[in-house]
Design goal:
The chain is mostly helical and 360 residues long. Among the domains are: 1-126; 237-360, no CATH class. Helix content is 72%, strand content 0%.
Length: 360
C-alpha cells in the first residue's frame, strides 16, 4: 500500500461502515505506522481501533488492542508530556474498566489491577474521581454490594469533569444503582430529565428504559416492563451493541408477547452468532432459553416455520422444548464462567428467574 498522510487516513476511517470494515482499515494503518516507527500515530491509531471496538458493540477487539496501547504508554515517557495522549489514555482506561468485566477469561484480579492503574492516572493528572467511583460501582454491583454502595456515594460527592461520562450518563448510572438496591422512587426521580429528552447520549434513553424493563421483569410487574419495552424496541433493533437489551426483551416477551419474541429472536440470531462479546451473547442466550421454554409448538407452528425458513440452522428443526434445552446448555455454561469469576450467583438467578412460569 502506498504511504499516505496519516491524518488523511484517520479521517478516511469515518467514511467506512462501522465495525469490521473500519476496524480492518485501522489495523492496516497501525501496521503502517509501526513500520514507519511514528510513535504519535502508533499510539493514536490504536486509540482509534479501541474506540471503534467499544462502540461498534464487539469489545473483544478492544481487549486485544489495549495491552498494545498500554505498553506504548508505559515505555515512552514522551507520551506523558503530550496533553492529548494523556487525555486519550484516561479515556481508554474509562472504556476498558467497563469492558473488561464482559470477558470471563479476564480475572477479577486483572480487572482490579486495571482499576488501580486508572485511579493512579486520574490522581496524577489532577482529575475528578467521579468516573472511577462510578465504573467501580458498576462492576461491584454484581460482585459486592457493600463496595458498590461506598463507591456510589463517593461518586455523588465528586464533581464531573472532561473525563466523566457527562450529565446524561451521570443520571443514568444513578438509575442503575438505585434500582439495584430496590429504590424505585429515587430511580424514577433520577430518570426524569432523561425521559423528558433534556439529557441525551448515544445510549440514552434506551439504556435507561432497559434498566426499568429488567427491574419490573424481576418484580413481575409486566405491564410496566412492557411499557418501557415499547419505548425501547425501535431504538435497539439490529444493533449488535444492544444484544443484552434484546435478550431482556426475549425474556419479557416469553411471558407477555411470544409472537413478538419469536420475531425479534429471528431478526437477531445472526447478530448473536457473529458477536465475540461473551457478556452480550450470554444475556441473549438467557432470553432465548426463556422464550423457547414458553413456546407451545402447535399454537405457534406458523411462526416457528418462518423462523426455520429465515435461519437455516438445524437446531430450529427440533421441538421448542429441545431448542430451549440447547440454549439453556449454552447459557448455563456462560453463566457458570461469569459467576465463578465474580464469586456470586448473580447470573444463575437471572437464568432461572422464570423457572416457575414454565413449570420446569
Amino acid at each position: 500500500m502506498e504511504f499516505q498522510d496519516f491524518a488523511s487516513q484517520e479521517y478516511g476511517f469515518y467514511l467506512l461502515a462501522r465495525g469490521e470494515p473500519r476496524l480492518k482499515r485501522i489495523r492496516e494503518a497501525i501496521t503502517e505506522a509501526d513500520q514507519k516507527n511514528d510513535l504519535n500515530w502508533r499510539f493514536r491509531f490504536r486509540y482509534d481501533y479501541l474506540e471503534e471496538s467499544i462502540f461498534c458493540g464487539d469489545r473483544y477487539f478492544a481487549m486485544i488492542i489495549f495491552p498494545e496501547l498500554l505498553s506504548l504508554w508505559e515505555k515512552h515517557e514522551i507520551l506523558h508530556e503530550d496533553v492529548t495522549a494523556s487525555h486519550d489514555m484516561l479515556i481508554c482506561f474509562k472504556w476498558i474498566v467497563e469492558a473488561a468485566p464482559e470477558f470471563p477469561q479476564i480475572s477479577k484480579t486483572e480487572i482490579d489491577g486495571y482499576f488501580r492503574l486508572f485511579k493512579k492516572l486520574l490522581l496524577e493528572q489532577g482529575k475528578s474521581m467521579s468516573i472511577y467511583y462510578m465504573k467501580h460501582c458498576l462492576f461491584y454491583m454484581r460482585v459486592d454490594p457493600a463496595i458498590a454502595a461506598a463507591d456510589f456515594y463517593r461518586f455523588l460527592e465528586e464533581p464531573l469533569d472532561d473525563i466523566s461520562d457527562g450529565k446524561a450518563l451521570y443520571y443514568d448510572q444513578q438509575v442503575m444503582y438505585y434500582l439495584s438496591v430496590d429504590e424505585e422512587e429515587k430511580a424514577l426521580e433520577a430518570a426524569k430529565l432523561i425521559f423528558a429528552g433534556k439529557l441525551k447520549s448515544n445510549a440514552l434513553p434506551q439504556a435507561t428504559y432497559h434498566d426499568f424493563i429488567r427491574y419490573y421483569l424481576e418484580k413481575e410487574q409486566y405491564a410496566h416492563a412492557v411499557h418501557y419495552a415499547f419505548l425501547t424496541e425501535r431504538r435497539v433493533m439490529c444493533d449488535p451493541y444492544y444484544l443484552d437489551i434484546i435478550g431482556t426483551l426475549l425474556s419479557l416477551y416469553s411471558i407477555t408477547k411470544i409472537p413478538d419474541g419469536i420475531r425479534i429472536f429471528t431478526m437477531h440470531y445472526e447478530l448473536y452468532q457473529l458477536s465475540k462479546n461473551p457478556h452480550l451473547k450470554m444475556l441473549f442466550l438467557i432470553g432465548a432459553y426463556h422464550l423457547f421454554r414458553a413456546i407451545d409448538a402447535e399454537k405457534y407452528a406458523g411462526l416457528l416455520e418462518e423462523l426455520r425458513n429465515a435461519r437455516n440452522d438445524k437446531i430450529f428443526e427440533l421441538p421448542p422444548d429441545q431448542i430451549a434445552e440447547h440454549f439453556y446448555q449454552l447459557a448455563d455454561s456462560a453463566v457458570q464462567k461469569f459467576d465463578a469469576r465474580n464469586g456470586t450467583d448473580f447470573y444463575f438467578k437471572m437464568l432461572h428467574l422464570l423457572d416457575d412460569k414454565f413449570k420446569i
